[in-house]
Amino acid sequence: MTADHTTGLGRAHSRTNLVLLALTYFLYFGQLGVLVPYLGIFLDGRGFTSSDIGNLFAVITLSRIIGPSIWAGLADRSGKALQILRLGCFLSALCFLLVFFVSSFWGLTLAFGLMMMFWTAVLPQLEVITMQAVAPGKTPYGQVRLWGSVGFILLTVGVGKGLDLTSSELPVYVSLGVLCLLFISALFLHQPALQQHSREETGNLWRFAGQRPFIVFMLSAILLQISFGPYYGFFALYMRDLQYSGQETGLLIALGVLAEIGIFLIASRLIRQFGVWTLLMGCLLLTAFRWYALAAWADSPWIVMTTQLIHALSFGLNHATSVHFIHQYLPGRFHGRGQALYIGIAFGAGGALGNYGAGQIWAQGTNSYTAFALAALSCLAGALVLLLVRPKQMDDSQVSTP
């Protein structure tokens, strides 16, 4: 092993690289903190109906189905996860520029869809690189990942306040700036050295992902993401209709992500203590309560604050547990494609169905109760799906070879 290679190994696991990974999470999820809550506000300002907004969300979310698997397949086979992450950051920023030159439904759909296609190259590689970087040390994954939540909070609150002072065009200007910074951050990252894989890790991903525990996990994840449709597409508009200000909406969203940060700090401990199956079941049941509470009692600020605190489970704990499950259940050779499969199918297909359904139901807010009540039912269905496997089948750290 050469001295340069040894230095590269040290850099990949160094404190500096962990800080840069945290910064990359900060910017990646900070970008989501701008677009997820406020894209509906931006589109509404451009004169689109709720049906248009739901359809656009659904179409651009579809790119998350195919994109992650393509990029992760290239990363796993080539071992160049970092280069693919950088390429995704660069092309995401480049494609986002189209937003400033088009105004029609299909023009904006193309711009956001292309951006999302390349955007899907980022997170699966970032998750794999981070899990590899923290493995030899004492820094838990959650302590790096929580900075994504910090970025989400700061940009959500900032843009929420900015919307009260400026126009509905603000989110796209902030997003472009964040995307450019994300690419710059990625240029300074280091990737851990590739590990040698044993013979047991050869073969097709579906030999492992086709087993019942993984299939049940994916079905429950899809149903959870379907339930997020009304929240991701219309929460900011819903709050505005209920006379909450832009700043109040931003603070409510930030409250949920703040609770999420706390969960990330203790997620590893909770997983060890309670196991994957129990935590996923708890997250689904409490998320079902969250959506119904928003459907029935959202005129009460205290109720909305309570539902936002549950976001710590709906997204934070659920995501940390899911990443852990995939990392432990699948052999190392398939980690990138496993994370991409989870993001592509659950967030892509599930998210697209949820966004499309919410857009068809919402009807300018007159059917908000129905949309959130159906979201609650989707979560309950996900909990029922989990009953198809025993907890031990999901909590085992080593997958049995088919």
Characterise the protein shown here.
Helices cover 80% and strands 0% of the residues. It has a single domain, classed as Up-down Bundle (Growth Hormone, Chain: A). The chain is built from 18 helices and no strands. The longest helix has 31 residues.
Mean pLDDT: 84
Please give the CATH class.
Mainly Alpha
Rg: 20 Å
List unreliable stretches of 5+ residues. Answer: 1-8, 197-201, 397-402
CATH architecture term:
Up-down Bundle
Distance between the termini: 36 Å
User: Considering the protein shown, what is the CATH homologous superfamily?
Assistant: MFS general substrate transporter like domains
Report the sheet with the most strands, covering strand number, pairing sense and barrel closure: none
Quaternary assembly? single chain
Order of helices and strands: HHHHHHHHHHHHHHHHHH
Q: Helix count, per DSSP?
A: 18
Total number of beta strands: 0
**Count of domain modules:** 1
CATH topology grouping: Growth Hormone, Chain: A
The percentage helix is over 70%
Structural class: mainly alpha
Shape descriptor: globular
What is the beta-strand fraction?
under 5%
